[in-house]
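Box 4.2: Ligand-aware structure prediction
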Amino acid sequence: MRCTSCKSGEMQESKTSYFAQLKSCYVIIENVPCLKCTQCGDEVFRGSVVEKIDDILDNLEKIVSKISIIDYSKVA
Ligand SMILES: [Zn+2]
């Protein structure tokens, strides 16, 4: 798969950290599977991963206080 940003790099399986700012808190999800460009380092998530992150954030909003760090591989 070609990178959509630089059009020359190759997208490869990788892992990244996802940062989100919710209404009253910050969330960091670690070890999120993504595709990363070998050229420019651009990262994209698959649809299924985006949905899962939405799920995680929905559930979290009810329980977290200020800052949360979550390991994706433990909640997915
Ligand atoms: Zn690229």
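In the box above, the bound molecule is zinc ion. Residues 3, 5-6, 9, 37, 39-40, 42 surround zinc ion (CB under 6 Å).
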